[in-house]
């Protein structure tokens, strides 16, 4: 093997390692998550909260909702989990009495859909 | 004919050089990629890495110290200096006849024996290291906790330590304890620290010095990428702080200084941020927000 071939082999190997270690992004939304996305707008969430992946949501009243699955706490008071987020959405004031967030008009199922969507995005 | 040979040699030289460079970078890449270099604190760096880092530290401090040093004999090293040393330094660096705390024995690199650095380092170097700390060594920066005078007093004390016997040091702290009993009980941080001039304080640095960056995403701070609290980018344009307090410059300062007063159930702890530091932080939050 001459020099050229060796460098070619090393180069290809490096590219291979690089590709293999890249995590896969961009799974399409499930039906539940799509429902949640719609609810984000129809239930008024988007007028107070910002979400980069949902261009309609650019409100600056509440905190941004990007990367919700990575957040440690909800509203700074409640440890973050899917179950706690559903409970919080159903009655924010139960967890943070003087919050500026109004109680959204949601069924349990709608709160679940929004949670599904936020945890995806 | 001759010309052709030279070109051929050069070509060969360059391709070999390129190959060697490629192999070196592939080697360095694999060391990291396969986790070969150990970050465990049970053992130190390899000799080569240790020497390299030590040299880098000495050069970096040397390039930055202020050669103008005040007369050390003008500083009182017996009162607040001793108290600050006992409170903030002894747990890692020990003192004549006093061992460091168990937690610091597990640190890597191990904190230096104070008498050794007292003998080897100049007052200017000691001052710089106390004020600035040393990244990734465990030595914290004290600039946002101690005044200049307090740091110079500590330097004066450290320079005295190698001249004391175990009994002399023990006697010194003993007589100090009697003295301390008469002092009104206010938190130490508040009793001693005189604020520094505003132009010496950086909001971006203050946000790191109070560890805001380990819980909040903040533009301009590389390590601030975690979501324990809400992101602070564009914070000043949001209507409420923590969902309750209307966002104004003054409310931001008050919230940072005392979050639990405004939202007792908040998981954000009080960090004893002083007003000048909180104001500098808020200035920085305005800087990184969209203009409105």
UniProtKB/TrEMBL annotation, chain A:
Xref: Pfam families: Cytochrom_C
PROSITE patterns, alphabetized: CYTC
GO molecular function, one term: heme binding
Protein's name according to its UniProt entry: C-type cytochrome
InterPro entries: Cyt_c-like_dom, Cyt_c-like_dom_sf
Domain Cytochrome c: 31-121
UniProt keyword annotations, A-Z: Heme, Iron, Metal-binding
From TrEMBL, chain B:
Gene3D superfamilies: Cytochrome c-like domain
Keyword Hydrolase: no
TM annotation in the entry: 12-36
Domain Cytochrome c, residue spans: 76-162, 198-289
GO MF annotations, alphabetized: electron transfer activity; heme binding; metal ion binding
SUPFAM superfamilies noted in UniProt: Cytochrome c
Pfam families: Cytochrome_CBB3 (PF13442)
Keywords in alphabetical order: Heme, Iron, Membrane, Metal-binding, Transmembrane, Transmembrane helix
Domain of life the protein comes from: Bacteria
Protein name: Cytochrome c domain-containing protein
Provenance organism: Alteromonas profundi
């Amino acid at each position: 093997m001459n020099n050229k071939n060796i460098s070619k082999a090393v180069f290809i190997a490096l590219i291979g390692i690089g590709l293999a270690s890249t995590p896969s992004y961009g799974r399409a939304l499930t039906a539940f998550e799509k429902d949640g996305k719609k609810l984000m707008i129809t239930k008024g969430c988007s007028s107070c909260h910002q979400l980069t992946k949902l261009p309609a949501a650019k409100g600056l009243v509440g905190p941004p909702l990007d990367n919700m699955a990575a957040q440690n706490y909800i509203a700074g008071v409640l440890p973050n989990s899917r179950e706690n987020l559903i409970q919080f959405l159903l009655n924010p004031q139960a967890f943070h009495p003087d919050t500026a967030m109004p109680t959204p008009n949601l069924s349990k199922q709608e709160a679940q859909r929004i949670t599904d969507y936020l945890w995806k995005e | 004919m001759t010309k052709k040979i030279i070109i051929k040699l050069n070509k060969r030289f360059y391709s070999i050089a390129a190959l060697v460079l490629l192999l070196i970078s592939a080697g360095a890449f694999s060391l990291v990629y396969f986790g070969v270099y150990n970050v465990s604190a049970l053992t130190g760096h390899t000799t080569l890495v240790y020497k390299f880092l030590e040299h880098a530290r000495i050069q970096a401090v040397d390039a930055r110290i202020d050669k103008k040093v005040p007369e050390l004999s003008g500083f009182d090293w017996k009162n607040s200096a001793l108290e600050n040393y006992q409170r903030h330094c002894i747990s890692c660096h020990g003192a004549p006849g006093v061992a460091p705390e168990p937690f610091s024995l597990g640190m890597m690199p191990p904190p230096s024996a104070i008498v050794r650095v007292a003998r080897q380092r100049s007052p200017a170097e000691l001052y710089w290291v106390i004020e600035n700390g040393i990244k990734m060594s465990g030595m914290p920066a004290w600039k946002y906790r101690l005044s200049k005078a307090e740091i110079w007093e500590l330097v004066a004390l450290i320079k005295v330590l190698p001249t004391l016997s175990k009994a002399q040091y023990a006697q010194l702290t003993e007589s100090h304890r009697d003295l301390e009993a008469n002092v009104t009980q206010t938190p130490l941080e508040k009793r001693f620290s005189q604020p520094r001039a505003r132009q010496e304080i950086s909001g971006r640095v203050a946000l790191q010095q109070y560890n805001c960056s380990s819980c909040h995403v903040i533009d301009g701070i590389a390590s601030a990428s975690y979501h324990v609290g809400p992101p602070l980018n564009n914070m000043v344009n949001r209507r409420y702080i923590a969902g309750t307090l209307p966002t104004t410059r003054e409310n931001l300062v008050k919230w940072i200084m005392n979050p639990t007063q405004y939202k007792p159930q908040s998981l954000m702890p009080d960090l004893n941020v002083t007003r000048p530091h909180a104001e500098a932080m808020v200035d920085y939050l305005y800087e990184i927000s969209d203009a409105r």
